[in-house]
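Lab notes, practical 5.
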Amino acid sequence: MTRTRLWLFWSSLAVYAGIVAAVVTTSWLVHLDWQLMLFRPYKQWPEFHAFLDYFVVLGQRAPTAVAVLAWLGWRAWRQHTLRPLFMLAGSLLLLNVTVGAAKIGMGRLGPHYATEIGSNEMWAGGDIFPSGHTANAVVTWGVVAYLATTPRARRTASVVCAMVALGVGGTTVYLGTHWLSDVLLGWVAGLLVLLALPWFEPGVARAEAWLLHLRDRLRGVPATGPSAPASLSPLATRVSIVSQRPTGAGAQSTREMARVSSGSGTAARPDTWPHLAPRPHTTRHERPPVTPAGHRRPPQSDRPGGRPQARAGG
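Output from the prediction step:
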């Protein structure tokens, strides 16, 4: 996880704790909740009610999970990887655990079930705080942006995700199903899940490798590795070991590997043969010049006077 993402995570966690503390202490945030609830926005602008009833579905768990699962399943099939599906499943599981535990633990009642004006309605058997619709909209659509393959696609998906999450949260306040503080905490709760996803990447990679290995075993596909197959003879095994050694300094020459292949099956290991000891490689320009055998007349510039001498008896 990068330093920026880590800083955002701890900052969001501090904001989360601040919102909870503001509601528990019945601060100005609770008074704002009651003002919006008594204002009843759905009665002030009834012309938007029909459209927003359908729009809020973008924050429901089942429809959004099915839509995103179809998209990520197609991505997984095209890219031959299970990572998108694992990341979606892990994010939804983390969302259910964290948001569900907070809902049950704080037990806040919703606006339609409030009992006392000005009360924070905490620990009264409700399950409204934080907003599950809002947190689900942030996480489900945010995973699509998190798994985008290009920076441009990631930026575009992030903007669309933010607009959908803001719209779903505002719609729940308009319909009177959530307090404003519920929506604020739902946004932060969903953001915390998205920021924590990089911590699950190693586990996702191990789970994907294990499942692919299990699939190969069920199909009867032999495991691949650097070792030689068991069906090879001992001589062929030694030849394959020598042929797989890296070239360069300390590598065996082609003629020496040919000696290995032509040797008997009872010969010692190639590493113990003295004439196959590693030798330093010398480049062509560092090798000493080799004078060809036979008489060669020196060049004319090396003779005295710089002029050719006449042959005797000529």
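Observations recorded by the TA: Residues 36 and 148 are 37 Å apart (CA to CA). DSSP finds twelve helices and no strands in the chain.
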